[in-house]
Amino acid sequence: MLRMGVDTHLITCAAALPLMLRGERSLVVEMTDGTHEYNRRFREGVGFYYDLVKANVERIVIGLTAELAGTGATALAVTPGWLRSEAMLENSGVTEDIWRDALAREPHFCISESPSYVGRGVAALAADPDAHRYAGRVLSSAELARTYGVTDTDGSQPDCWRYLVEIQAAGRPATELGYR
What we know:
The chain has helices at 2-20, 36-39, 48-67, 86-92, 115-127, 141-148, 160-168; strands at 26-31, 73-79, 138-140. By secondary structure, the protein is mostly helical. It has a single domain, classed as Rossmann fold (3-Layer(aba) Sandwich), CATH 3.40.50.720. It has a 3-stranded parallel β-sheet, with helices on both faces. Helix 1 (2-20) packs parallel to helix 3 (48-67). It is globular, with a radius of gyration of 17 Å.
């Protein structure tokens, strides 16, 4: 887990950074799982190594920010919410067109988001000439959506990480009202 979850980030940066430093402005976006606030406490039920890997991505971004000071490169991390990846859809026995059918088995899946949502947010971030203001931070797809006005494919702006704390972890019944 450590090799796949940490080394892959480091190897990719080592290969990509020399190319990125050739330009006047570049953006290193590390993809992670969880906001700074969400990852502050240990993730019970997932184990020490998984938790360590997820916390490490933020440390990589903090370190890269220090290393890249004075260059035109900006390092930050982005976390999607509950992503409707191909594997997640397949495991749920649904497709993107009928993803809501999975709510019968997993009601909290109502907060899930398509890969396009985080992609749209990252594209808007990359086009922002002031993106360096986010250096060293972990941004959620919902934060990017609010900042840049992007939406998911259904026109909504899901906020998974707030939902996980306020609804799911609190043991409240699933509802997308106020979170999409």
